[in-house]
Amino acid sequence: MVEAQPSKTAFRVALRRAAHQVVDYPLVFSDPLAVKIVGSALQEEIARTPDKRRRPASAGLRAFLVARSQYAEEQLKTAYANGVRQYCLLGAGLDTFAYRHSYPGLRVFEVDHPATQAWKREMLSASEIGIPLSATFVPVDFERQDLRNQLGMAGFSFDHPCFFAWLGVVHYLSLDAFRTTLNLIAATPPGSGVTFDYSLPRESLAPHEQLEYDSLSARVALAGEPFQITFTPEAIRAELSAFARIEDLDTPSIATRFFSNRTDGLNLRGSASRLLTAWR
Ligand SMILES: C[S@@+](CC[C@H](N)C(=O)[O-])C[C@H]1O[C@@H](n2cnc3c(N)ncnc32)[C@H](O)[C@@H]1O
């Protein structure tokens, strides 16, 4: 990421979650604050590119993003039912969970790059979204700062389990930063878990998907947030050897779970991205 610049990809993802609330029916992911947090930007975006939301590639990306958020919150629900009372959003972006959830006793830690987090706080204030006492902001650059220290100072308990959501972040990290963060999660008590998404290596994709990957890759690089790491399913399993149970969803599994029986055509495109949950 560009130092001192809030994440542009975080804004783009938030815009798509917001668009989903007004463009798609039925909702895959219901977020009553998604439109509010992006302010007037959603209407400006729709006005500027009125047909974009219907283009297959654009809709395909939106489909993946809303499935990703819904999947993470379903996993959190399971963790909460099993007694987990800490939820940590790693690279939270403009995620609104902390301001709309109804889980008594749940503490939510929002970890993000300091520049992105400062910008988010301005967005929250501008859109008059209240911040509950159960939410704690933890500014951390995964590449340069010690996540354990920062979380500890913020009141995170390493003696209790936590569920982590790490959505849309892994691609942008160095392998070192990915492993350091994963090691911290792997050291949390049994009952903890993490959901994240990852991309398959470009060379494992079909030629037309390689072109789509190149296009997205060029756009995020232009935004100052180039893709850095990809994994094969075998490689990611090897990274997760400290975890007891893994669910790794490929495109057909995600489509079956979140896009069956729709009549509006909203669905995933391509097979580059996968959703994974690992439990301690
Ligand atoms: C594509 S956005 C996803 C945001 C959010 N998880 C969501 O799904 O809406 C990527 C996020 O990763 C964060 N990020 C990227 N590199 C980071 C780093 N080195 N340290 C901390 N956060 C980072 C960005 O600030 C941004 O919030």
Average pLDDT taken over every residue:
94
The CATH superfamily label reads: Vaccinia Virus protein VP39
Topology pattern, helix = H, strand = E: HHHHEEHEHEHEHHEHE
The count of domains is 1
Helix proportion of residues, in percent? 40-55%
Strand line-up of the largest beta sheet:
3-2-1-4-5-7-6
CATH class: Alpha Beta
Tertiary shape: globular
Structure overview:
The chain is α/β, with parallel strands linked by helices. Helix content is 42%, strand content 14%. Helix 5 links the parallel strand 2 and strand 3 (135-139). Helix 1 (8-23) packs across helix 4. The protein is globular and about 45 Å long. The model has no long low-confidence stretch (mean pLDDT 94). The structure holds S-adenosylmethionine.
Name a few traits of the molecule.
single chain, 280 residues, alpha/beta, Rossmann fold, 7-stranded mixed beta sheet, 10 helices, 42% helix, globular, binds S-adenosylmethionine
